[in-house]
Design goal:
346 residues, alpha+beta, globular, ten-stranded antiparallel beta sheet, single chain, 10 helices
Amino acid sequence: MLSPLTGAAIFLVVTIEPGGEPVVHDLLPDLAGLQRSVGFRLPEGGLTCVASIGSAAWDRLFSGPRPARLHPFRELRGPGHQAVRTPGDLLFHIRAKHMDLCFELGIQIMTRLARAVTVADEVLGFRYFDERDLLGFVDGTENPGGRAAEAAVLAADPHFAGGSYVIVQKYLHDLAAWNALTTEEQERVIGRTKLSDIELPDDVKPGSSHVALTTITVNGSQRQIVRDNMPFGSPGRGEFGTYFIGYAADPAVTEQMLENMFLGRPPGNYDRILDFSTAVTGGLFFAPPAGFLERPPEPPAGRAVPERAPAALTGVDVPGGIAAAHGPVVPDGSLGIGSLDRSARS
């Protein structure tokens, strides 16, 4: 999450089937090896993968301490718009310069998880010109960099230092309604100029603009997150969207942004962007540090972990999307997922 931005990404959210916990537990230490094997074919492609785990799944997979602030995604019902909570036990955020690397790693992951999970959501994202979303505005301008990014993203929990809390939402845009606005009207909704990406002055920027409501200041200090949003869509189906993914040291920062957007600050003064963008998914996860995934805790009492994934659970009957077009694979290596030194994007 602290590495350079990439041109492609896959966001893969799955739920764990009853009895599938041992297969998932067995995969986690091997993710870094799978990533290396795929990435070695195109070393300059910058392939990375961050695996994150939801609140309910955590207790199904691991004994011992759990991340202090990990909890289910909190639904929000505002005066006109809703932040929904949708199913999700695991999130795989796969990134690279080229989609072929993301796609291949997704295949290998789903091969290992066949019949142990069900795909809840799968989005293939792409870079759109100069880091713009499909609304035409630059996305990610306010991401912190360097040490500020580390402070914004890496949790201080002594049991999970170096991990991060992740909130995801898939937004669908009504581009017909959006494009019916003038550029000046669009800029007042976002709070920035469209062409030059300059924040509007406070005396011009509405309090209901996206920028105004997602700026969180506590005791004079701005609280930040790192976003790695990606556009996605299908011209043939008329589907156009943004996949929001925000990494934070404390999920309360992102949650406050969402409360401001959906409930309003003050109440009722909601984010005008929601009149044109609808959240259709929502989930909260924790991305453990590399060392945790290299040697994950034992499963809860009564749940056994096989030495390797059973042959019957490799390469067949995998649901939809990237999971549908592959055969068996032999996993390579047994290291952790790699550091969270991924991308700072917003």
